Amino acid sequence: MAVQDLNLEVIEVFNETHDVKTLRFKLDKPLDFQAGQFVMLYMDIPDQHGKVENIKRAYSIASSPAKKDWIDINFRVYSFGRFTPPLFNLKLGDKIKAKGPFGMFVHKEEDGKNVVFLSAGTGIAPIRGMIKLIEEKNLDRNTVLFSSCKTTEDLIFHEEFLRLAGKNKNFRYVPTITRINESKKEWNGEKGRISIELIKKYVKDLKNNFFYICGPPEMVENSREILIFEGVSKENIKFERFH
């Protein structure tokens, strides 16, 4: 896929949680990309002395490549950061520049029929793009999504995945909460981090599945090591670290 210079305009804003948003950007030209890839976003941001600098950051595309005229960017705001606060405050009609696509963490049709996604926090972003592609192109997949978040209030795309699981018998959604004592809502689902015990509960034949892992570095490395120890081929594991 050829890298392009892009002009983006905010056309929709989705408040996913108290500190996570999805921004839908209209593209000034059609963008060919693979599910899971990312773009570099650029914004002019003043430093502590008022000097404006052009800052760039990488963000995964959370929408399907079947959509050519817009992309979704999902992210968490960090109050101490330079980039996410102004990004979080973008409104309808605001415009920024971007470049892309980039990245090798992609879903390909030849990756196999049985697919398992492991995500933590906003690591769900590129995985959501892959799941949307599978859904929109009606690909022949048996899919299990494990999504780990701190509290019930931190679940991202939760209702969307519940609806998909309700209408697609080949899609299984397994959210799990790591800080149940801090959650405000009642929770009857899985608890704790994504473990090999949890994976085996829903995936019976590990070696016959293709795994995609996305989240913090420690989560990604631990998951990958455990899967390899359990006999999953390295070639059947794709991963992306979110710092």
Question: What does it look like?
Answer:
There is one protein chain. This protein has 243 residues and is α/β, with parallel strands linked by helices. The protein folds into 2 domains: 4-102, Beta Barrel (Elongation Factor Tu (Ef-tu), domain 3); 109-241, Nucleotide-binding domain of ferredoxin-NADP reductase (FNR) module (Rossmann fold), CATH 3.40.50. The chain is 20% helix and 36% strand. The chain is built from 5 helices and 12 strands. The protein has helices spanning 84-88, 124-136, 158-167, 196-202, 217-229; strands at 4-15, 20-27, 38-46, 52-60, 70-76, 95-102, 114-120, 142-149, 171-177, 190-191, 210-215, 237-241. The strands form 2 sheets. The protein has a 6-stranded antiparallel sheet. 35% of the residues are buried. The mean pLDDT is 95.
Percentage of β-strand residues: 35-45%
Large-scale geometry: globular
- Helix fraction by DSSP (H/I, runs of at least 4): 10-25%
- What is the architecture of the largest domain at the second tier of CATH? 3-Layer(aba) Sandwich
Summarize the model shown:
This protein is an alpha/beta fold and 243 residues long. Helices cover 20% and strands 36% of the residues.
Structure characteristics:
2 domains; single chain; 6-stranded parallel β-sheet; 243 residues; Elongation Factor Tu (Ef-tu), domain 3; 5 helices; 6-stranded antiparallel β-sheet; Rossmann fold; alpha/beta
